[in-house]
Amino acid sequence: MSGPMKIRATAKDGVADIRVLMSHPMETGQRKDADGKVIPPHFIQNVTVKLNGRTVAEGQISQAVSRNPVFSFRAKGGKPGDKVEISWLDTKGETNKAETVIA
Amino acid sequence: MRRRSRHAALWLTAAFALAGAHAVAQDAKKEIQKYQSMITEGSPVELFELEGEVLWKKKQGPKTASLEQCDLGQGPGVLKGAYAQLPRYFKDADRVMDLETRLLHCMMTLQGRSRDEATKRVFGNEDRLSEMESLSAYIAAQSRGVAMAPGASHDKERGVFELGKRLFFHRAGAWDFSCASCHSEEGKRIRMQDLPILNTPAAARPVVATWPAYRVSNSQFKTMQWRINDCYRQMRMPEPVFGSEASVALNLFLTVTGQGEIYRGPGTKR
Amino acid sequence: MRRSSHLLICGLAAGLAACATPLVSERPAAVTGQDLNEITSVLKRDFKARGIATMARVELDTLQQQCNLHRDSPPAELAAKLEAEQMKSIPFPSGSLIGDWKRGERIAQNGRGSMWSDQAGEPAGGSCYNCHQLSPGEASFGTLGPSLLRFGKLRGASPEIQKYAYGRIYNSKAYNACSQMPRLGHAGTLSEQQIKDLVALLLDPDSPVNK
């Protein structure tokens, strides 16, 4: 279930400020549905950030992160015009990615 | 001399006690403000605006048309400031409409969709927003920075406002509730939720400037039609029909009472 | 704009939309029978039955009519008459009215019941904490109603007080004609046993309310 993903990236003094909004249920596997059955876990496990094709950050996140997560971080060496690509892989093997150009 | 100094001591003590109590209240208020700015920073509302934009431009219905020619009060397709000037009277429908009522009108007239089909799922959930909710997010966002200025001069607008006001104070239902039962007394709360006195500008202004809104506690994006609907559910009343005059009347009453406030939504709430 | 200069300009330029009397959000000064009929017609037209919430709920009973007409402040004589009528309709059980305070605490915490989202026949709650403080250990309480902390400690648990507590919960309007408190027994939200359990929460010396 890949909803839209939005990246906002700006740069100042050689440091890029990146903010990404992801659409994902981030189901913990602890909740029960109306019939009392456990809703199986389904959450993003890996997040990869690339700057101009080079991986600058790789994160493993868990079901502790809430639905529709927002991440913001800084990347050294970013400047306007650089390409930012962010992708994720979840527990079902589904993926999504988005890219933008640093403003 | 003695009496004066005792009084001075009393005044000083009272002043310190008040300052102390005030400081505690200010601390709680600051924490809540901090919480509110934190949840706003991490809000996924932008994603819903994007979804809404896609739906606004999507060709749908028997007429295979998009909503891009929909007139929300500022001219066909004009979105800037449109939300801030709703609800208002629309000549082509000869009635006062809020955003969702107007969107339904456009879905039926521009896209040829039936009311039943277009209102099949007006309120979504945490897994998937409804079409109305996504569209509301997108359109409301185009009014950021604009002062709230709903219609308040046309005869029908004034009539609908008065209806809204009377409904606000009307006690009915299994539990004898009116809106005023909860929303008309200073300093009251339900559980830990403060209850604004909605028929006063001071309380109505921040409310109208921050709906529709994302609810962090249940990950759902909700609109004013939903808010009114869900109030009536908890008031132990039957259900308001989506986009009905009664629902628009309450929305207009609230928005006129809060007019002038600069719109800063879509909001993010607890 | 100052009111006096506003009126002057309006007088000179009668008919301009800008000079229409500004809309006021204050409570209407008067409510007539016709107003109530009109509002009820609007509710019938613009609302629909759902689940257990039927359209009968928009019909006003005498009490609701009078409270609406008098803006929740009926004159003393009328208030007394309305209260007496409500009191007559309360089916007070005989014997002890004190049930189980542990069940009462759960009922007080439960905010469900009588809504269209509730299933018919499922036990409801009293939503008491929505408006009242009760057990001192519960910090999440509303302030729409008075605090009920030490309710029994302050009043004892005599048959008169039991009857008072039972009656207040069953039909608060028997004691205060236009009270904002719902008539939980009268509306069919709570059963006799449930109200007894709430009475226990209020009056039982072992109840946390009285510790």
Quick recap:
The complex is a heterotrimer of chains A (103), B (270) and C (211). Chain B has helices at residues 2-41, 45-57, 99-109, 115-118, 131-141, 155-169, 179-183, 201-208, 224-234, 245-257; strands spanning 88-90, 95-97, 189-190, 193-194, 213-215, 220-222, 239-240, 267-269.
Task: Explain what you see.
The complex is a heterotrimer of chains A (103), B (270) and C (211). Chain A has one domain (6-101): Immunoglobulin-like (Sandwich), CATH 2.60.40.10. Chain A is built from no helices and 7 strands. Chain A has strands at residues 6-12, 15-21, 44-51, 54-60, 70-76, 83-90, 95-101. In chain A, strand 1 (6-12) and strand 2 form a beta hairpin. The two termini of chain A are 29 Å apart. Chain B has 2 domains: 1-41; 42-269, Cytochrome c-like domain (Cytochrome Bc1 Complex, Chain D, domain 2), CATH 1.10.760. Chain B has 10 helices and 8 strands. Chain B has helices at residues 2-41, 45-57, 99-109, 115-118, 131-141, 155-169, 179-183, 201-208, 224-234, 245-257, and strands at residues 88-90, 95-97, 189-190, 193-194, 213-215, 220-222, 239-240, 267-269. Chain B has a 3-stranded mixed beta sheet with strand order 6-5-8. The mean pLDDT of chain B is 91. The model of chain C is unreliable at 1-11 (pLDDT under 50). Chain C is 41% helix and 1% strand. The termini of chain C are far apart. Chain C has a domain at 101-210: Cytochrome c-like domain (Cytochrome Bc1 Complex, Chain D, domain 2), CATH 1.10.760. Classes of the chains: A mainly beta (103), B mainly alpha (270), C mainly alpha (211). The A-B interface holds A 1, 3-6, 21, 23, 25, 66-68, 70 and B 41-44, 46-47, 50-51, 126-127, 219.
| β-strand number of chain A | 7
State the share of residues found in helices of chain A, binned by percent: under 10%
Rounded to an integer in angstroms, the radius of gyration calculated over CA atoms of chain A is 15 Å
Trace the largest sheet of chain A across and list its strands. Answer: 4-3-6-7
Q: What low-confidence regions of chain A span 5 or more consecutive residues with pLDDT below 50? A: none
User: Any idea what the radius of gyration of chain C is?
Assistant: 22 Å
- Largest sheet composition of chain C: none
Using CB atoms under 8 Å apart, which protein chain pair has the greatest interface?
B-C, 49 and 52 residues
What would you call the structural class of chain C? mainly alpha
**What's the CATH H-level superfamily name of one domain in chain C?**
Cytochrome c-like domain
The end-to-end span of chain A amounts to: 29 Å
Number of extended strands of chain C: 1
Task: Give helix % range of chain C.
Answer: 40-55%
Give the topology string of chain A: H per helix, E per strand. Answer: EEEEEEE
State the separation between the terminal residues of chain C, measured CA to CA: 58 Å
Multimerization state: heterotrimer
pLDDT averaged over residues of chain A? 89
